[in-house]
Design a protein that fits this description.
The protein has 1 helix and 47 strands. It has 470 residues and is mainly beta. The chain has a 4-stranded antiparallel β-sheet, with no helix packed on it. The radius of gyration is 27 Å and the shape is flat. The protein starts with 10 loop residues before the first helix and ends in an 8-residue tail after the last strand.
Length: 470
């Protein structure tokens, strides 16, 4: 099983499912934190007081009141009181998704619920996580689906099968693909070349015999399959491709622009920055959602609009324009990025030796071009680079962290991973190194804890930097 054979002896893979869940939950200090004592694992409260004895070969953080544990060479789940809710009797178990875990027994897979009840027999050669109440399973080399009662809605009969997404899944027979809905009905024949598109707003891109178009959720062809390519439906429109040129179609199948553009960007504030012609000699402008060229194609490059402004270049001049195409300011810079939080990164000089700074929406240079590199502002903070080292500045240009780090990650729960002199630590949003750079590797904080590596061993730390091991 490729997708869910998560073994507890692989801690970073184990931690991944915890990270995905934790990103959707409010940040808080966990009640129980994995702790290692000698070669066994258990759980401690904040301050390292052991609550659940260290008796396991490996444990994972708690999710929704359950933690995955390994005893000997078998896996199960315990609750926050240390009781085995799912006995350690399985060769592998996945994290719970939509209330179910994939468990392995005697080299076959089945599903258990969060109380330990076995939902299906252990009879599958492969099994995938539930998504939208459905899970793909493989038996005798063929794929089918079960619902969240454990009943098969379609006997394994397919060569391949994808997860359900937005109510539909792709299935294949004899190298052709069809779409299946959650009742098990094939809404299209096996006609399509590949699992090409997903349904967005009831529309999916498909490809048959090398030609692409769009179908609706009943499998009806709503935009003729006559294009070389079709991108996922977005903003109520489809981007279609003919001879490497892009155009726009609406749900009625009307071409609101012909396929004559070399690039069509995503719509931002109702406008898409778009290009005509070759990479080096073509021109850029803006389309609205009716396909009208509302800002002329006279620029060498354009960026998406943000808060009503965008940066553009015409011949050698970088300018700031509004959504009518009116020039707000012409500048003396050689390059500009898109605006973010009212600021745009700009560069004076060429790519290899130039220096970067920031302008505001009026085109004024508010942060002097002094950095060898700089990234967009996020939540009032931007990463900047001097002498091959990274630091942080705020919107006023004040340095809140000196340029001393080899790497700075994005913030997670108000802390960012940083690397200095080959070691990892954490800084806060004030730029203070609150956990010193002493680890060989580290992960983002999620739900108040982070998985780190020190002298070849994996362990957990809290936001005070306390190492949970004895």
């Amino acid at each position: 099983m490729q997708q869910k054979r998560i073994k507890l002896q692989l801690p970073f893979l184990l931690f991944l499912s915890f990270l995905v869940l934790a990103q959707t939950l409010p940040a808080q200090v966990p009640v129980l934190i994995p702790i290692q004592k000698e070669d066994k694992w258990g759980f401690a409260g904040p301050g390292k007081k052991i609550i659940i004895p260290c008796q396991y070969e490996r444990v994972s953080p708690f999710e929704s009141g359950l933690a995955r544990v390994k005893k000997g060479d078998k896996y199960g789940f315990i609750n926050t009181k240390g009781k085995e809710i799912v006995p350690c009797q399985y060769e592998s178990v996945s994290g719970f998704e939509e209330g179910f875990s994939i468990a392995e027994k005697n080299d076959k897979y089945g599903y258990i619920d969060s109380t330990g009840n076995v939902i299906t027999a252990f009879e599958y050669e492969d099994a995938r996580s539930f998504n939208g109440g459905m899970a793909a399973i493989s038996k005798n080399g063929k794929w089918g689906y079960i619902n969240n009662t454990g009943k098969g809605i379609y006997t394994p009969d397919y060569d391949e099968a994808t997860a359900f997404l937005n109510g539909f899944a792709w299935v294949s027979k004899n190298n052709k693909w069809a779409l299946l809905n959650t009742t098990g009905k094939e809404i299209t024949p096996f006609l399509f070349d590949d699992k090409y598109g997903i349904f967005i707003d009831g529309v999916a891109a498909v490809k048959k015999d090398g030609k692409a178009g769009y179908i609706d959720s009943e499998g009806k062809e709503i935009i003729a399959l006559k294009y070389d390519g079709a991108l996922p439906w977005k903003d109520g429109l489809g981007v279609v491709i003919t001879s490497s040129q892009y155009g726009l179609v609406d749900k009625s199948g009307k071409e609101i622009t012909p396929c004559e553009y070399s690039r069509i960007g995503d719509f931002s504030e109702g406008l898409a920055n778009t290009s005509k012609g070759s990479l080096y000699t073509g021109k850029s402008g803006y389309l609205d959602k009716t396909g009208k060229e509302v800002i002329p194609f006279e620029y060498d490059f354009t960026t998406p609009f943000s808060n009503g402004v965008a940066t553009v270049r015409k011949t050698s001049t970088i300018s700031v324009i509004d959504k009518t195409g009116k020039e707000i300011a012409a500048t003396a810079f050689d390059w500009a990025d898109a605006f973010s939080e009212g600021m745009a990164c700009v560069r004076k000089g060429d790519f290899s030796t130039g220096k970067k700074g920031f302008i505001d929406k009026t085109g004024k240079e508010v942060i002097t071009c002094q950095y060898t590199d700089a990234k967009k502002f996020k939540n009032g903070i931007a990463q900047v680079n001097k002498n091959k080292k990274w630091g942080l500045i705020d919107l006023s240009g004040k340095e809140i962290s000196p340029c001393v780090y080899d790497f700075i990650a994005d913030f997670s729960e108000s802390l960012a991973r940083v690397k200095k002199n080959g070691k990892w630590g954490y800084i806060n949003t004030s730029g203070k190194e609150v956990i010193t750079c002493r680890f060989d590797d580290c992960g983002n904080f999620n739900n108040g804890i982070a998985l780190v590596e020190l002298t070849g061993q994996d362990l957990y730390i809290d936001k005070k930097g306390i190492e949970y091991r004895e």
